[in-house]
Amino acid sequence: MLITNNIYYVGVNDRNKALFEGLWPLPNGVSYNSYLIVDEKVCLIDTVEVDFFTQYIENIQEVIGDRPIDYLVINHMEPDHSGSIALIRKYYPEIQIIGNKKTFGMLEGFYGMTDGLVEVKNGESIELGKQTLNFVLTPMVHWPETMVTLCGSVLFAGDAFGCFGALNGGIIDSEINCDEFWLEMVRYYSNIVGKYGVPVQNALKKLADVKLDYICATHGPVWHEYINKVIGLYDRMSRYETEPGLVICYGTMYGNTERMAEQIARAASQAGLKNIVMYNVSKTHHSYIIRDVFRYKGLIVGAPTYNAGLYHEMEVLLSELSGKDIKNHYLGWFGSHSWASKAVGKIQEWNENHLKFEPVGEPVDMKQALTEETKAQCAALGKAMAEKLLH
Questions:
Q1: What is the helix (H) or strand (E) element at residue 262, kind and residue range?
Q2: Residues of the chain with pLDDT > 90: what percent?
Q3: Which residues touch 49 (CB under 8 Å, ≥6 apart)?
Q4: Which pLDDT band, with edges at 50, 70 and 90, does 148 fall under?
Q5: In a 10 Å sphere around its CB, with 0-12 CB exposed, 13-18 middle and 19+ buried, how is residue 159 labelled?
């Protein structure tokens, strides 16, 4: 598919994979995007996962026929984008591979390739004929070798500005209904890139003065009409900006801890808070919870004591959240026990040692089942969080 100025989309869709990176659910699939620039020299930008090579090479040859490819630019070495490199070289043995120094260390490690390499540094360029490639290194967005490539007003962005979801016919945002992609962009960013807010900010600063007409990411639509919205989303998320909303997530074995969560949510609503989402940590995949933690400033977590510690799925979620280096959040917590209270103390330890969110309200520790006293304590916690978020 032609995008603009002899730049073509030659990517593929994966509608079969259940988990991205073996971790993140793909209810709507995912695309692996690759691009061809056809000039005096032909340049391929990134490749696709190797399982789709047959379809991929057909896409390429549909554009260029028997013409050779002169260059392959590798913006990112993750195997869903580099997996076809070795096969591409078998089809095009004279192809020159463009990357940076860290790219080539990974290229040798993954695929044993050490020859036919063209190293570029930040700010350097390569002429294709009428068009010029300019390279901007963006380390740790979200691997150390990542870079982006500019071709006029077209940005080949690697994993930056990507999102989950296969492409259903249309490629450019102006051709498709993008409603389903916005929350999937937040989930993609928060779970995969979210830890690296500072490197993302550094990358955005490097590109701040560049006029962009198209952003060609390696997952999701080609952005054209919505460029400002997409960059704005990445800017806010990488600065950990949030909306005044609340995520309540809980573990429960027999429903008693869940009833505490319901009391907390009701009180927060009665205090005027509208953006409230609730999750059972054993039922909802944690990627959706993490997505909403990035969206909303307030978080209240609760779980039972289990095996003289914290309920397993809540322990896992807190570990995942602590690995994201999330900032500027409020935290409340609650727990339950039958005879030995551990959950409330364990959650507090997670916050003091790892999360470091601002505590709000008084933690609630319930023994066995709800009483009028614990109902009132839960209501007080929900109200305190709502008031903190709204004022």
A1: helix 256-270
A2: 98
A3: 12, 14, 32, 79, 80, 81, 83, 84
A4: very high
A5: buried
